[in-house]
Structures are given as C-alpha cells and as structure tokens.
Amino acid sequence: MSAAALLALTLAGSALAHHSFAVFFDTDAQLVKVTGVVRDFQFRNPHGVITIEVPQGQAHITWRAETNSPSILHRRGWSVDSLHVGDTVTLEGWRARDGSRYIRLKSARLADGRMIGQPPPS
Amino acid sequence: MSLRRVAVLALLGLLGCSARQAAPPAASAPHSAAAHPDFSGFWNLDMKVPRDPALMALVPPNTAFMDDTGPVEFPAGNYGGLILTPAAQAAAKKWNPRDQLTPQNACRPPTIVYALQGPFPIEIFQSDKFIVMKLEYYDLVRIIFLDGRRPEADYPHSPTGFSSGHWEGATLVVNTDHLEPATITNNGLDHTENMKVTERFRLSPDGKVLMATQEYEDPAVIQNRGVRFIAWSRQPGQHVYPYECDPGFAGNYKDVK
Lengths: 122, 257
Hints:
The complex is a heterodimer.
Chain A: H1 3-11, H2 21-24, E1 32-42, E2 49-56, E3 59-66, H3 70-74, E4 88-95, E5 102-110
Parallel strand pairs in A: 3-5
Antiparallel strand pairs in A: 1-2, 1-4, 2-3, 4-5
Chain B: H1 3-17, E1 41-45, H2 53-56, E2 63-65, H3 86-94, H4 112-115, E3 122-126, E4 130-135, E5 141-145, E6 162-168, E7 171-177, E8 182-183, E9 190-191, E10 196-203, E11 209-217, E12 225-234, H5 251-254
Parallel strand pairs in B: 2-12, 5-6
Antiparallel strand pairs in B: 1-3, 1-12, 3-4, 4-5, 6-7, 7-10, 8-9, 10-11, 11-12
C-alpha cells in the first residue's frame, strides 16, 4: 500500500468538528426574515435551535433557526427563558446553502419589536 | 471559594504529586512563579488586537498566516495559504459537511489546532511546574507541563495532546504533540496524529491582553506550515461556562425541507 493510500485511510471518516458556518450558510445572499409562532426552543450547545410555524394560506410551514453557542449568547443576555412556545417572533439570518428552510440566526425580535439579547460587540 | 476553584486546585495538587512520567531533567529546574508573567485569569477572544510584531517575527519562513481566527471560517475549497499534499486534497474533495451533523459527530471536539482560535473564552491557572488552560469550547482542558517531562510510550492521542512548555524571557513557548486526527480549517482539511504545534504566549505591556501565535506542521497533509495569531482580553471575576454539548442537536437539520 502506498504512503498516500495509507494516509487517505487515516483521514477517512476521522476528523470532524461542529459544522462549518461558512460551508453551510450562504453569507453572500440576502438575509432571510421570517415571522411565526414558536413551536420549540432548545438552548443547548453546540447551538440553540428555534422552530417556528409560519402561516401560508390555510396551512403553515416550518422554519428553523440555529443560534450561536448558548454559552456565548448567555453573555449577551439570552437564557432558556428568552422564548416560549406560543410566542410570536421574527427571525433574521443566513439561509442554508441547500435552500432548506433553515437559517443561522442573526437577530430575533419579539412581537413588540424588542430584540432578544444584545448584538455581538462590533 | 467556589466549588470550581476548589476542584481546579485539587487537580493542581494531584498533578504535582502523581507524575509517573520520566523525572524532569536537572537542567530544567523550576523557576519561581513570580519570576514569570502571570497568565492566570479569564480571557475572552479579542479580535481588535493587531498582530504582535515581536511574536510574528519569530515565525519561521515557509509559514502561511491563517486569517481565520474567531468566528471567521474559510468557505469550501479555501484553506488560506496552506499548500495541501495530493492526499489531503483528495480527502478534502471527498469531505461532506453533512457528515458533521450526525449524533455521532455533532459533539466530537476538534483539537487545539482549531479549538484555541474559536470565539470562546479560556481560563488559565498557573503554577511554576504546570499551567492548566480550560477552554470553554467543548470543555477542553489542557495541561502544559513546565518541568521537562515527556509522555510515557503509550500516552494516548487526544484533542489536547501532550504539551510541554518553557519560558524564553517573558514568552511562554509550548510544544504539543499526541493530537488525534481532526480538522485544521473546518472545511475538509484534516491533520493526522503526527501534527506538531508550537505556540508562543506573551502579555501586552499593560498585562490586559494575552497574545499568542500558534504554528502547526504536518507534512503528510500540508507542504508548508501554518500560523494563527490569537489574542484575548483579561476580564477579571469571570469564569468559563460548562459547554456540555448535546448531540441531539444533529437531529434538527434532518427534518427541515
């Protein structure tokens, strides 16, 4: 077996980390903004996840937004109580490159317009 | 005194009396902690700090500067200035980012090669014989031995590896090996278990900023060398938080359309 083949075997399926923001999300496209009702809110590392139902005609569609690490968001005023099922929320972020209804959250605002937490330091 | 501080002090005590590795060489007699800068404390990544000329001047030739510190990440197919070997290029082409989002892999930590530069704080506990560096990212804990010991023959490879440090004036130089294979750039370029890392840490003159260069070399995957510059600002009175990664996160991406 050649050294290159041996190395390829060593690398295969080995090295993984949490998923890449740059690879998963389209940062060149326009930001996506969706408003809906919270169906689920998870606030655990590596990412929080907000699931909302957005009205579409007589039905509704599901959107998900993954947040930055909750450890980081905690220092920006977020908590597990920042959102509750039934809250109306507007989510803005970068859409997944594969076109699915999955975004990386940039900001979240409650129905009265208040932003949840503080933005990252500039 | 908090439970966390008690636990870390207990760890320091255990380390000080449980070394079954080779005895330190006589030439590396421990210095007094007061003789060196004190890195102890909570440090948060600070992207505003410019590259330190003194540290950068020590970077050897044939080393690419990797401008992806903090939340910045290279897109697919971009590895900064690193020159990949044919084998690494072939592996990177086969890389599928969706493989990261499985319950088996979502919480698998990277090594310090990728972890140290991330947008997470670190906390340092320092003695004259070793330094404990706790990274918030994935709860990684590094121990940097300052007494010249080397790992035993069967020492395992891990995300933090085995780190030996020594002082060159006010600069702490750390050499790390025994790292398990993991990502370098989080986009398909992975290092092998033979990765060698050299880090240099020093304080700013006012002691408020900790600066580091992290050089790495792994000839099996990169034909040149890489270096990142990382800086953290001291924030007294804070501690790193538990990370406690939840692999259930991976399921969230599966059922979206």
